[in-house]
Design a protein that fits this description.
Structural class: alpha+beta
Radius of gyration: 16 Å
Shape: globular
Number of domains: 1
Number of helices: 7
Largest sheet: 6 strands, mixed
Strand content: 5-15%
Number of strands: 6
Strand order of the largest sheet: 1-2-3-4-5-6
């Protein structure tokens, strides 16, 4: 495997350089470890294409997405900046994406304790989100396997996905109306 036995920061740098070289992967938004922006800047600023969660081992896709959702929800990152078109995760074997709009409703759950530790898989909050996102992830997750052989083909597949992401929709509600209106 191409990225096996390396540190998380090195993994982020290598994935950014190898898979997202046509995009800006240098910005860190709050507690989100990896983000992808278009390189060109326009009059209204850049909108994120992807917020992702990297791990150095071989992890379950659903578990990693739940940790990312808990991290975003705890910091209320979506209230401070325009959310991306996609959320993602990657480890040394795979890169997976799901559209933000397909899981956006989770961030507005009533009576939910967002102050739990995202890495604690035993909390009722973790289990609740995992249960809610499992079906969504089964239906709408795009997953690419990382190997040296298919990287060039997957790079083009990844670019196609990211180009679609640039036109992805975001639900407008009372919480994000002002930032979207200002854009």
């Amino acid at each position: 495997m191409k990225y096996k036995n390396i540190r998380e920061k090195e993994l982020k740098n290598k994935v950014g350089a190898d898979w997202f070289k046509n995009f800006d992967t240098t910005e860190i938004i709050g507690n989100i470890d990896f983000s992808v922006f278009p390189k060109q800047d326009n009059l209204f600023g850049k909108s994120p294409l992807l917020w992702a969660y990297p791990k150095t081992g071989n992890y379950d896709v659903t578990t990693m997405f739940v940790q990312l959702i808990l991290t975003i929800g705890k910091a209320r990152t979506f209230d401070k900046t325009l959310p991306p078109a996609f959320l993602g995760e990657f480890d040394f074997k795979k890169i997976a994406f799901v559209s933000y709009i397909s899981i956006q409703d989770i961030f507005y759950l009533n009576d939910f304790n967002w102050n739990v530790t995202p890495s604690n898989h035993e909390t009722k909050e973790f289990k609740l989100i995992k249960e809610r996102v499992e079906n969504t992830l089964k239906k709408s997750t795009h997953t690419l396997t990382i190997t040296k052989k298919i990287q060039k083909n997957s790079n083009s597949s990844l670019l196609i996905i990211l180009r679609k992401l640039q036109t992805a929709k975001i639900k407008i509600d009372k919480n994000n109306f002002i930032p979207i209106y200002l854009r």
